[in-house]
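A.,

Following up on our hallway conversation. Structure tokens first:
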């Protein structure tokens, strides 16, 4: 029977603590008894000069007795060890769940109800006279609490089951015979059980599969467990064979429950491999695993005897690498090898796809279904780098190491590119279609976008220092990440001679732009190279993540923003990020009007650039419409849709930055840096609330009501540029006369930004 919520909340773990203490005493006494038996009667028996039948029987009895006492000590020690681990983990989980129920739930006005089978539901109790209307924020908070409590109960249930299983195996069920399974930790017992189940392969029942996933879900990031698990599987080849068989088992046919279990296994194995291959962990796999994976990468790995075809090792490994934060020393040599193989023959791996028909188009080695079937390892390793920020940073920064076909280093080899940013961002780079769809179908054409999408994810990780889909993301920028971002800006902008980015990369470029909105503002404040002499370092101040400002170049910065803001989602992300960043800067400069106004003018210019860029794209979309009246109406409708879905209401304060989204039109949460008063200051929720007041005042949150009176595109843009400055004027006690003098110059700054885009349009 699974542990329930009520069990975990109400159980007295002090009794288990007492049992731990009692077993410790037993272990100590049995250790003494075993030592005495070994040095006492066993030693005397061995030295005695006995002869005859009685002597033989006596010696055997003494030897067996000494061994049994030693076995009892080993058994008691194993029981004590797993009890200690289990007690420690259960106490921690009980503390967390009591905090959630006794503090967090009442603060939210929520009750927690045990609905059985290890599940709870959270609800808002009805209060007489209450309309029972809840905001989306309240509903989200309630759901987060419910999910958190259910995770804690599930984790405790797994600990309870693993502990019971380990105790049973340690005891063995024979009261007349000690000496059975022995564990050095609860992790050892869990890894043993996980491998027992894994050895069943596709023969696992759904119930056994759920048990395996449950064990791995809560232990994958524990290096002791993950190292034991992979070691017990046998080695790199056995790992690939197991994963390959389970992937095909889950993706062939139409068993949705089995597919869901396989997707969980894929994620769990990735997270576990990342922790097991990190050399900085106390327990970790040897470095030979990376070299062995490279060797197997270009070899066929037979999953079933006589199957006729077999996948390459890299196709199997790629599915695992898509999840987990990997150490660069493990994943980067693999990623480099894969890129070099791809450059030589882009279709080498995808030509190994099976011929399938009907409903089996998802069959392959990427059960997640995200970005390909798993036959193109390049997409897979880029997704892996997208979850491994430090590795991604080194991958796009370090000079290439050349590898031979078998994955060994070729010290005399050479490549034609200076780094992997250049190699993968070449406009002529060939991306292979990772799909089982018919080559002439729309689905197959879309498959060529999967690689560029994964490249965008890897660049996000490399530039922001956070996994591309982290929730919430936290910025970890430094000089190297900024250098990579500079390469991104120079490669992807409206004036690039290398052509536009793949459309699928726009969301990544937008989130990177939002993460560097402070540097984009800083770079743009440099008319005639006047930025340094006008003190822009003081104006743009300290960043919430402690990074130093990077000058990307005034022209390149605005050309990058012009490119990204043309796309609706890109515009939403950059525009909302600019609003948040502007609000933080104005809040910081309340006591320094000169810096505040300089900051405001530059921010208004940025708004002009973004707004006009989006307007230009909308206009070009209706260039064939002859009726000007219809054109104007369509433009307004598009702009309204953009403004509403790009509401900044989804901004919340977290850690060292604020997070934008996930809101309508925003693919993932986006980290936005803030201007801080001092170095090392933390952007907490209170600071974020103060900052965002500039956005909330005067209906600045772009909700539908705020847009009802707006008639034209230009009015929305102008209002967005003026209202934060107006709020700043009120906060700094500016007089009406001062505000009257300020308004035309702010309008001029906004128009300057628009004019830059207009000039580009004329050139075009």
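Then the amino acids I'd put at each of the 764 positions:
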């Amino acid at each position: 029977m699974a542990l329930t919520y009520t069990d975990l909340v109400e159980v007295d773990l002090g009794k288990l603590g007492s049992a731990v203490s009692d077993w410790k005493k037993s272990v100590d006494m049995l250790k003494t008894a075993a030592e005495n038996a070994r040095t006492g009667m066993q030693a005397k028996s061995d030295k005695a000069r006995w002869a005859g039948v009685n002597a033989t029987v006596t010696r055997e009895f003494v030897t067996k007795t000494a061994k049994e006492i030693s076995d009892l000590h080993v058994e008691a020690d194993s029981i004590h060890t797993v009890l200690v681990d289990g007690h420690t983990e259960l106490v921690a989980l009980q503390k967390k769940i009591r905090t959630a129920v006794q503090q967090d739930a009442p603060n939210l006005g929520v009750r927690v109800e045990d609905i059985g089978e290890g599940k709870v539901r959270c609800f808002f109790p009805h209060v007489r006279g209450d309309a029972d209307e809840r905001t989306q924020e309240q509903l989200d908070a309630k759901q987060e609490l419910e999910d958190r409590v259910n995770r804690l109960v599930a984790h405790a249930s797994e600990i309870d089951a693993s502990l019971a299983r380990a105790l049973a195996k340690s005891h063995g069920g024979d009261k007349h015979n000690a000496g059975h399974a022995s564990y050095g930790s609860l992790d050892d017992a869990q890894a043993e059980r996980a491998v027992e189940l894994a050895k069943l392969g596709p023969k696992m029942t759904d119930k056994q599969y759920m048990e395996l996933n449950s064990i791995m879900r809560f232990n994958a990031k524990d290096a002791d467990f993950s190292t034991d698990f992979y070691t017990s599987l046998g080695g790199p080849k056995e790992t690939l064979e197991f994963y390959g068989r389970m992937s095909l088992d889950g993706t062939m046919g139409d068993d949705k429950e089995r597919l869901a279990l396989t997707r969980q296994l894929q994620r769990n194995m990735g997270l576990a491999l990342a922790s097991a291959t990190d050399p900085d962990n106390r327990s970790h796999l040897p470095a030979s695993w990376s070299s062995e994976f490279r060797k197997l990468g270009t070899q066929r790995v037979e999953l079933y005897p006589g199957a006729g075809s077999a996948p390459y090792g890299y196709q199997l490994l790629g599915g695992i690498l898509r999840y987990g934060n990997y150490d660069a020393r493990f994943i980067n040599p693999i990623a480099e090898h894969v890129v070099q193989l791809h450059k030589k023959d882009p279709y080498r791996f995808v030509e190994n796809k099976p011929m399938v028909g009907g409903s089996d188009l998802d069959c392959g080695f990427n059960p997640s279904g995200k970005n390909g079937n798993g036959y193109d390892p390049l997409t897979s390793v880029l997704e892996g780098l997208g979850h491994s920020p430090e590795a991604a940073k080194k991958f796009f920064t370090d000079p290439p190491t050349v590898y031979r076909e078998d994955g060994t280093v070729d010290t005399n080899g050479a490549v034609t590119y200076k780094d992997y940013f250049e190699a993968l961002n070449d406009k002529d780079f060939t991306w292979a279609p990772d799909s089982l769809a018919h080559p002439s179908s729309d689905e197959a054409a879309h498959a060529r976008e999967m690689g560029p999408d994964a490249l965008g994810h890897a660049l996000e990780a490399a530039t922001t220092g956070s996994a591309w889909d982290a929730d919430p993301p936290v910025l970890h920028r430094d000089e190297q990440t900024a250098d990579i971002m500079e390469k991104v800006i120079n490669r992807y902008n409206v004036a690039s001679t290398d052509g536009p980015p793949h459309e699928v990369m726009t969301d990544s470029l937008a989130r990177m732009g939002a993460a560097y909105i402070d540097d984009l503002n800083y770079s743009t404040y440099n008319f005639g190279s006047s930025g340094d002499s006008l003190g822009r370092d003081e104006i743009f101040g300290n960043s919430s993540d402690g990074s130093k400002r990077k000058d990307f170049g005034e022209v390149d910065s605005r050309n990058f923003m012009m490119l990204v803001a043309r796309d609706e989602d890109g515009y939403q992300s950059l525009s909302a990020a600019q609003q948040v960043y502007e609000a933080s800067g104005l809040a910081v400069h309340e006591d320094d009007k000169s810096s505040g106004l300089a900051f405001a003018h530059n921010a208004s210019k940025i708004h002009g650039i973004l707004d006009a860029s989006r307007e230009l794209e909308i206009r070009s979309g209706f260039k064939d419409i002859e009726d000007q009246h219809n054109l104007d109406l369509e433009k307004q409708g598009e702009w309204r849709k953009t403004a509403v879905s790009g509401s900044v209401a989804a901004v919340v304060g977290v850690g060292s930055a604020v997070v934008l989204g996930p809101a309508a039109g925003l693919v993932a949460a986006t980290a936005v840096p803030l201007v801080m008063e001092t170095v090392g200051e933390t952007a907490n929720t209170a600071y974020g609330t103060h900052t965002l007041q500039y956005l909330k005042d005067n209906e600045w949150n772009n909700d539908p009501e705020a847009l009802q009176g707006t008639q034209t595109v230009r009015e929305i843009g102008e209002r967005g540029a003026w209202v934060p400055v107006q709020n700043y004027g009120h906060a700094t006690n500016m007089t009406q006369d001062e505000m009257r003098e300020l308004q035309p110059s702010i309008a001029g700054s906004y128009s300057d930004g628009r004019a830059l885009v207009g000039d580009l349009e004329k050139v075009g």
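Residues 633-652, 662-667, 684-688, 698-711 have pLDDT under 50 and may be disordered. Curious whether your intuition agrees with the design.

B.
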